[in-house]
Write a structure and sequence with these properties.
The chain is an alpha+beta fold and 226 residues long. It contains ten helices and five strands; from the N terminus they run αααββββααααβααα. A five-stranded antiparallel β-sheet has the order 1-2-3-4-5. The chain is globular.
């Protein structure tokens, strides 16, 4: 039987949304811990699935406690589960993320959330030099059906040192190179959800293979990690 996300996950978070305080949470903490244990089994099942076709060196499931020190929102608890899967560096780049939240707010994401300045410049330089391969990947029908196009922040015109008239400026001006796929509560609770996620994550590999090659070589194609 496929590992599933338990239905009580959404039930609990909907209650927490209305009672986001320490007294209520402490009273219901045993219930949360039981749900968390089941959800961790789901994340670990995804990890096992990923490692059949990729090399993941770390799964990080984020804690429910919010860091409110620098936030206007002082509610102490998150109302979702989040977990990230890190590919083995330095050879492999990119990562996977699963976000489980009620009210049809669940999603999976892949790519590069906050590229280091050196990596961001290297990616932009690659697109400036030749954008044919990345566009071939992005325009692949099967890939596009699952992931759509890039989402994330970008500069308004052009980054410093790049021409706003360049034919690849739509790619160059991005600050993040990520893809997001959203799910309804019904889809998340379906027994086939894990297989759906696995299929989507596997479909991202041409993009990850390309970006890993870019980020481990210089502009002349010489390896930076050998």
């Amino acid at each position: 039987m496929s590992q599933i996300v338990p239905k009580e996950t959404f039930t609990f978070f909907k209650k927490l949304e209305k009672n986001n305080n320490r007294d209520w949470f402490n009273e219901h903490k045993p219930e949360f811990k039981a749900i968390e244990a089941k959800v961790k089994l789901f994340y670990n099942a995804v990890l096992e699935q990923l490692n059949k076709h990729d090399d993941i060196d770390k799964l990080k499931i984020f804690r429910i406690y919010r860091d409110v020190r620098f936030s206007k929102n002082k509610l102490p608890y998150k109302t979702h589960f989040g977990g990230s899967f890190h590919r083995t560096k330095p050879k492999l780049r990119g990562g996977y993320y699963i976000h489980i939240q009620p009210n049809d707010e669940s999603f999976i994401a892949t790519g590069f959330w906050e590229p280091a300045p050196a990596d961001l410049l290297r990616i932009r330089k690659e697109f400036e030099m030749d954008d044919r391969e990345i566009r071939e990947i992005l325009n692949n029908k099967a890939f596009k059906t699952i992931w759509g196009g890039f989402v994330g922040d970008e500069v308004k015109t052009a980054p410093k040192g790049f021409s706003k008239e360049h034919k690849a400026i739509d790619l160059i001006k991005k600050k993040q190179y990520i893809f997001v796929k959203k799910y309804t509560d019904k889809e998340v609770l379906d027994s086939d959800f894990i297989n759906n996620v696995g299929k989507a994550f596997k479909a991202i590999r041409p993009y990850f293979d390309y970006m890993s090659d870019v980020l481990t070589t210089d502009l002349n194609g010489v390896s930076l990690i050998d």
